[in-house]
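Two records follow; treat each independently.
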Amino acid sequence: MQPIHATTVVGIIHNGEVVVGADGQATMGNTVAKSNVRKVRSLAGGKVIAGFAGSTADAFTLIERFEEKLNAYGGNLKRAAIELAKDWRTDRYLRKLEAMMIVAGKDELLVISGTGDVLEPDNQVAAIGSGAMFAQSAALALKKHAQHLSAEDMVRESLHIAADICIYTNHNLVVEKVKE
């Protein structure tokens, strides 16, 4: 069985708007296994958005755990992320999961990894997955030079640029906005 490569996820906070988006491609070896995987989820009634890169089953497990933590800590995004990262790093079962997550709330954007990292990205731009560096570069340039664009437009354009370059990224996008 060949490993599944999947995805580009990018999150941006710009002009009070918080948006996370991802492409829909999952690749096994040199074959596209699925072109419309939904890698972004709205949680807590739309007040939190989570996007994942990596193994889909692993990511679903992590999103469920994150949502449990979010509920347990009264919707406190940073605390829920830290508690998930602690569990992910120390729990025998979770430690084997291969994925990364971007989570976003009203004015927070965080990257969570299985090594216990909870990172607040510079410039309010986060990207994970196969095409992360392409999407992040595009997003940073758009934030700097195209400030008239909305965060949603920046996320979409960043993902399209990544899809034009990265063979593990396609143009089937799912984009979610944090609701007030």
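The next record belongs to a different protein.
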Amino acid sequence: MRKYLNNKAALLVATLLLAGCVTVPDTVKGRSPVPQQDLLRVMNAPQLYVGQEARFGGKVVKVTNLNGRTRLEIATQPLDDTARPRLNAASVGRIWADINGFVDPVDVNNQMVTVVGTIRGSEKGEIGKASYNFVVVDVAGYQRWRLQQQVVMPMQPIDPWIWYGPGRHHPGFWGPGPWGNYYNSGPVQVQTILTE
């Protein structure tokens, strides 16, 4: 029982350490500890959030180059703990993200991005022929994400017999492992993830 509890404690510590490794890239960290990420709340009363820092992300659906700045129209999606848009999540709404300087549309159009910056308010625009109130963000930093596919192999068989080395009160022995004979013959999975 003691060994079982020690294994559980070690697993808990490892999980906490790995969770601590989850970080937001410096390009979209921002100045405030928790930038606003709830677009629906901002859309309902944009005047209350003017001047606050926000972080939004999603797919760039339109790029407009203006004099001295580039405007990205982003179909936003919820962000995960690392500020990456959650793939396959439904769009929460659209924003206009204004970046100082020229950004080539070839580099960002139809790409996944996260932006951080100050909320300027809202402006009327259109999606197709429908009028729409866009939340406007003055971008301080942005991160373009790359789609990458990775292969996830099923768990392989584990030998059910394991050597328990000598301890304080026993000389050591061969015996069944605490996990039993785990085997998953399921198919190989391909996952799509976002990387920097």
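Discussion point: The chain is about 15% helix and 45% strand. How would you locate this feature using only the token line?
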